[in-house]
Amino acid sequence: MFRFLLPLAMAVCLALPALAQTLPEVVEASRAQIEKPSRQTIGPVIDAIAATGDPSAAAMLQAWADRKLGVRKADGAMFLLEKTPEGWALTGLDGHAAGTAPTSDITDLKPNAGVRELIGAALVQFTLTDPDPVQRMRALDAIARSPAKSQLAPLRASIEEEADPVLKARKERLANFLTLQFGDDSATRVAAIESLAGDTALDVRAALNPLLATSRKVAVALPQGVNIAATLTPGKDIPREAAYDLLVTAGLAPARLTLADQKTALAAHVENGAVGGVPLAELASQPRRDAAYEALEKSGQVPAAATDAEVAAALAAHVYYDQYAEPDPAVTDAARRTLASIETRVGLMTAADLGLDALSLASIYFLAAIGLAITFGVMRVINMAHGEFIMMGAYTGYVVQQMIPNYTVSILVALPLAFAVTFAAGVAMERLVIRHLYKRPLETLLATFGISIALQQIAKNIFGTQARPLTAPAWLDGALSFNDIISISYIRVAIFLLALLFLGFFLWLMKRTRLGLEVRAVTQNPAMAASMGIDPDRINMLTFGIGSGIAGIAGVAIGLFAKVTSELGSDYIVQSFMTVVVGGVGNIWGALAGAAMIGGFQKVIEWLNPSNTLAAQTYMILFIILFIQFRPRGIIALKGRAAGD
Amino acid sequence: MTRTFLTRNPSTLWFLLLLALFTLGVTLLAEGFGIGLIPTAFVKVLGKTLCLCLVALAMDLIWGYTGILSLGHMAFFALGGYMTGMWLMYARTEEIVVQALAGSPIPPTLEEVAQGVATQIFGVVGGSDLPMVWSFAYSAFLQLPLVLIVPGVLALIFGWLAFRARVNGVYLSILTQAMTLALALYLFQNDSGLRGNNGLSGLQNLPGLAEMPQSTLSILFFLASALLLAAGYLLLAWVSSGKFGSALRAIRDDEQRLRFLGYPVEGYKLFVFTLTAMVAAVAGAFYYPQAGIINPAELAPIASIYLAVWVAIGGRGRLYGAVIGAAVVSLLSSWFTGGMAPAIPLGFYTINWVDWWTVLLGLAFVLVTLFAPRGIGGLFDRLPSPRRHGAQLGPDDGALREKEADA
Amino acid sequence: MNLTRRSLLATAAAALAAPLTAPRFALAQEGPIKIGVLHSLSGTMAISETTLKDTMLMLIEEQNAKGGVLGRQLEAVVVDPASDWPLFAEKARELLTVSKVDVMFGCWTSVSRKSVLPVIEELNGLLFYPVQYEGEESSKNVFYTGAAPNQQAIPAVDYFLNELGIEKFALLGTDYVYPRTTNNILESYLKSKGIAAEDIFVNYTPFGHSDWSKIVADVVALGADGKKVGVVSTINGDANIGFYKELAAAGVTADKIPVVAFSVGEEELSGLDTTNLVGHLAAWNYFMSADTPENKSFIEAWHKFIKDDKRVTNDPMEAHYIGFNMWVNAVTAAGTTAVDPVIDAMVGQKFPNLTGGMAEMLPNHHLTKPVLIGEIRADGQFDIISQTEPVPGDAWTDFLPESAVLESDWKDLKCGMYNTETKTCVQLTSNY
Q: How far is Cα C95 from Cα C10, in angstroms, rounded to an integer?
């Protein structure tokens, strides 16, 4: 709405130079508005400031947008502010330094984001050719946010002299967008539109889609000279009820009688305990109410309600159509063609992005489950405290970050430290508890559950129930973007790489080291392994420690992308177990397949039902339950002797 | 038959006697019919505890006797609660709606009443049409049997699939836990039509008994719960004795061997799984009207693990052990978390039991598992127990055979 | 979502012992006035509710220093319902029948309030509920000192529409009754403001959700049709951390897609690095950064009481502050702590807000409050960029047809759910 007012106001100001005021006059006249601006009313004031031609107008607008404009409480004088250790350094609107003031003497103005956007748009004329490229970029951002016809000419004019190639390309692109919307004739607009064919960027679609905005209309006959997108047949393209509602809204047909209205009408005509001859007691059923209403209609006491036949006739007597807001059919046709050429590619890229999300989720599940794949998959020990080891790792990361302020260093310290802490915890648990329960797997489940709730509560007692911050280093901020559609945050990429790393580590450990050989031997036959000189106690202890240690590292990674709370572990424990079980116990590839299946499946359901993520999780678990019924040994089942029971 | 059954199982007789004494004592001391020494709030607590004891009995049969560690029985318990809850909520709301509509000059149609009920129950987050799951809620005769049918059928289907596929041991535990989680997540959704996270509330008011004070109502519920527990104990004691009971224990000790002997192991398991699910559901159906509210958090996976904790601490493989465990642990638990236990100042740190009770419980649990697998109930054996250090009692995993013959 | 288990014998010993030791009939008017504090001190809600318990203790201590109420000292009876919803009902019954408190301050989640409602209505208790909530409820025995939807959600959306020019809305919420109701009201409101149904994207996530990449991508993709997109977030608790982290990673700045949150305050932001979130918004009735003398002395008193000057203050704390002071004044006016006279004296009570202006208790047991909109700063506080005139709280929203006809008035109509069309009281007790 406002974007149309702005050029209008500007035009008025330019046309009437006699009305131009000096900057102090404008500020004084609109003081109240400047101090408490609203986007809906501030436009003329900003334009008036910009139109003063005062050399410091731009500086004042800039300071205002940056929240560096303030009013001295004592006398209401307005200053540009600059933060100093003592308070504010003041600069008068005339550009002269005016000393300093403590913060309590000054009310700094806080225009909201909408007002700042308008100020930015007004600043375009000053900054589009500013020598500072940063200022020029800001001007382009402002144009992109609130495009207006008046910007087209200055923008085009500035392209020639633009030295910076990046800025130049952006200017050309923006000029193209402005042309397709505000161009003078059909041909240039169509050309601008067609030059965008195949470009999947979000701003391209954002520029093209508004050209195709339609409104739904109804009329007795199709009007001439309007740009019609489609005519609609009631019952086919548009539900009959909706079509009739359109008629009612347009005042072309009377509203249908609702049941509530009918009831009110009946209640208004109760006579001697009956309505229209039907006793009140019988009115507890709909057919009798209809009968009573008909009786009332016949006697003329209530207006006749439209019958089905009348509705059908009214529907048939009118046409329904979608009309483009854009009057030029050539432009809408071109926009439609171009968008269609973009849509398929967008669809493919959305699928690719979904794939990346699924991959990322799978790698998180895999990372959470890889420790279990060792303790449960190899040793067949149910460790319900596995989730708490993940949590311990995350809290280790948090504590390290409290001590080492440099995020990069602290992460590098936290990863091995988290491994060490949880390795020690795992070994301790194995020695003290699990060792005694190898023959009673169900009881391991219960004992480790006891440890799990104790650890969780201890974490609560130490760190509180509030989520703790674990911040990623700056180089993991942001996202790896292939284009506007396909992107994935670096932190997820890092988790993916970490998952791959641990997959490799696990394979190397089990297949290439003495320890791995001994682990496999102990797993298959402890007695035989012992008689070959392997110490099963030591092997069990080490294996369990390594599995727990990896959980600790997973904890740091998970804490980085989500949150660190005492319940972090319990959020992942059930999923982790299912990852291992679905994939197939005793096989790392199984865990990988399990994680991939769970992550992929969940994302697909989320895509099918984007409004309810909870449902996606529910159906994912249901699917897993069913899957296990039909493949109880998982995707990759061990065969032969290794399968054990 | 009953005489011989009771004489063969003296513990059952003792249990029933103690339960009767306890019930009588509470009734006389409570506000409803007695002298009012026990406040209504506490009567409700005791009534609820009795229901928890019943579900612990069911858990004992499936785990202690049959050796299936189900981590899903609290889900059945909560489902039972949901089924009664729907009826209670519908009936109470219907009274309000009918009363409100009676003010209008035109008598309401059935559809209008149903729509009014739906609007009242769901507020603005649902439509004016009741979801399908509420189809029977208007009638106690149709809805209350669902307390048995819904959990029973769910257990039957789930059990049939799982046992047929020979999912057992820890796999079954994880699978039942997944089932609980799926059910909880499903109920958490607003779209499932059971009021999402808010659950069903206001269940303490029985329809048609609006005038009856809660003090009377609570003691009636307490008596009903006691009766139910007695009946449940008898039923489960009967099931777990005799030939059938021997077969169950045989499944626990060596399923494979029993199968080779020609017993339909899957059938036995399925029967016990379904039966205990239904017993749990009945317990839930009486529990939640006393609690007043049921919501999906009640069937979070951890609830079922706590159930296993009670049974393990009380003593597996003996029914009275389960009752002792449920009563002792749940009552102690709320005593400690209720802020009533005195804090212990250590000088440098004060132990607040609200914070440290869970740690204590967790560790107690580890110790019981390691050193006293028979739980509190094991004290009744009054035999000097050998230092176990995790060694098995019998030749097979998790066996508890030594004491079983006379239990 | 996590639950602390079955809460049974809450005060077994006390419950049993109390009737023996304290003859409850005698000297009812002597001794201290008892104030029940019903906030979770353990479990998932402890983080939010413990602060409120401390706030109540501080207010009671201050009042006692001023000489108490009616010449009697105040005594806090603190219980812990442990974030376990059935336990709230049990504890409330205990407070009313065993401890015999005169008034209760408590609850946070809607489900805990719904759990307590039948008990306090049955026993005619008095509860002050301090948290912003979904409305659609009015009980004679409850005073709602938090915001109703028209005191938080509607003004925030108006700000989006008018000040930021948002044309397309993403309503993201945790799947429970407050976001569901608020979003339904907002959908209906937005449609009445001419926003088409296809321009409103709704998503619900579980409690504690952490995998936000797809949802953030969906929100960004909404901008494809050239309309300005804004996010209205009713995401609860911990889940916000992952959400804001993902927003920052995806480069969604407040300039591109502003997010206004209804459940994120100073307390929640302390778990986050807010440098990437500067400019995103929150709507509340109170911000710690409000520049008034009352707020300054309140913050000072709080820091002194809690012995930590890093602790933040937040909106529900202000709600308790107003509610408690109004109750004190109402008791003084009524000359008794008996529930019915106090309820009558409460309506019309006025007390200054911490953010300036006066709060007034309305006949529907809601407050008039100004609505503040704040932009997140890098230091985890908010810049207040908009403050409305006081808005009267509305129990039954006017933006949904089924509740637009309902009204709550405990003064003249004596009914919490009055149908203005049929001119009948739908029900006297509240819906729970």
A: 11
